[in-house]
Amino acid sequence: MGFFFCPLGDLFPDGHNIDQLVPTEKYLVMKQAIAGVSPPEQEETTIMVVWPSVAYRGLGRLLGRLYAIRFPDIYIFRLGNLFALAFIPLALMLYFSRILPFIGRRYTLTNRRMVVQTGLTGATIDGGTSIPLDSFDEIRVIQRQGDAWYDAGDLEFYQGDTKVGQLVGVSRPDSFRATCLKAHSGFVGVQAALE
Question: What is the DSSP string of 82-100?
């Protein structure tokens, strides 16, 4: 058919005037001016969802330490690679346990807060971690032994010197930290402008 926007005015390519447009299945009307962006006062919108790595559990970090052994470091012939082959069934069990409804966890960043939810169901955990975006001003990435092999780490949220929350075993923690800080600065900036 054509485009919804015509740079020559408010006429659509099919000749209809924008004032004559009736929302139908053909023309969908969005709730927000920018897709996915809505004020926190209206509704909570998901910005990003991150699943914890296998390093979320202690056994996963132990496997990460074993996999990182580089002895004798001759091309791919390393002791760590042999451990990786030997522990494939255990590693698969740990990998898929991340998404189980009652055991698994996922971290959801919204336009209001950071929340820990259950695996596939996405239900918010009663008494679980929920960190409002205006309750921290710094995020530190902590890598424990075994995290480096998975490119994982813990995110610790601080308000001044006070720790307000922690997310364990976050996959690619540096990029998630940057996204959290951008969401934080946007939320705090809008709140300051409204006051």
Answer: HHHHHTHHHHHHHHHHTT-
